[in-house]
Amino acid sequence: MVDPTYEQVSSGITGHFESILVHYDPIQISYEELLDVFWRHIDPTDTGGQFYDQGSQYRTAIFYSSDEQKRLAEESKEALGDSGIFDKPIATLILPAQKFYPAEEYHQDYYIKNAARFNSYRAASGREAFSDRAWAGHEDFSFFPKEDRPWMHFEKPSSEELKQTLTPLQYSVTQENGTEPPFDNEYWNNHQEGIYVDVVSGEPLFSSKDKFDSGTGWPSFTKSIVPGAVVEREDVSLHPVRKGVRSRYGDSHLGHVFQDSPPPTGKRYCMNSAALRFIPKDDLEKEGYGEYLWLFK
Questions:
Q1: Domain-terminating residue out of 83, 110, 135
Q2: What is the helix (H) or strand (E) element at residue 206, kind and residue range?
Q3: How many domains, the chain?
Q4: What DSSP state is assigned to residue 22?
Q5: Counting Cβ atoms within 10 Å, is residue 119 exposed (0-12), middle (13-18) or buried (19+)?
Q6: The pLDDT value given to residue 24
């Protein structure tokens, strides 16, 4: 059925799911964190619906829009199943996103427009009580173990410690917002397949798939390896004001971003080699970055 109404979907006759479309800023919250919130607010073992609402239209599902989202969703589902928190199989479906039909305006922001009814229903449905019981004692459960992504739990060493582990140039660039010479740095002319990570924290930043010759003498990329991998901030050290680029977890200064690159993004992430460590495609698994091999298939 094309363009079904909310009432038609909620009746179960159309074959659609009643769902929400989430727009999020990956700099503020990661996809992994969204998955964590989702799992903690549903009954993932119910094959026929959710609490009061039963029927195929109320089954739980995660709709992914990229291979990376699919992989992370499946990984989190497997982790939940292995955790022992629930004594039944995890029934939540993981499906490719298809056309989303927004409900009529009356149904938008219902929890605000009809707060009393919404809160009464939410309490009576048993959802909150179920979540409290299911997750009691498991508040610190992690869907994505620290050892799998250590950079997400990176604690920045002191300046003295960093001076011991970084070269003077690496320290100047990453900690003091320095800039290395053009055409005289390690990666400006590197054409190998692989990924570039923060030399301080090890977090993945850029892929060789998005690297291009900008003619500037510094390694340049059209986008970060995944949305939100880098943080853009105003740099007022020179005039005109530029937009600096920093790593999300290590807070290392990487370089600057300019709006003058080729399609599809129009951006040129002009980075300092001294802020990066290159990991060749063939070494990704060995170095603990096997999840990024999909970029090169």
A1: 135
A2: strand 204-207
A3: 2
A4: P
A5: exposed
A6: 79
Domain that holds residue 114: 6-135
The amino acid occupying position 142 is: S
Query: Which of 135, 166, 181 is the last residue before a domain boundary?
Result: 135
Structure tokens at 64: 């992914």
Residue 178 falls within a domain, yes or no?
yes
CATH number assigned to the domain comprising residue 54? 3.30.1060.10
Whole-number Å distance between alpha carbons of 163 and 129: 51
Print the SS3 string covering 215-264.
CCCCCEECCCCCCCCEEEEEECCCCCCEEEEEECCCCCEEEEEECCCCCC
192-244 pLDDT, tens digit each: 999 999 999 999 999 999 999 999 999 999 999 887 789 988 765 655 667 89
Of the candidates 293, 145, 135, 272, which has an alpha carbon nearest to the alpha carbon of residue 200?
Answer: 272
pTM of the model: 0.59
- Residue pointed to by tokens 């390690």: 186
pLDDT tens string 242-293: 789 999 999 999 999 998 887 778 899 999 999 999 999 999 989 988 878 8
The angle formed by the CA atoms of residues 220, 226 and 229, to the nearest 5 degrees, is 75
CA angle 27, 67, 273 (to 5 degrees): 55
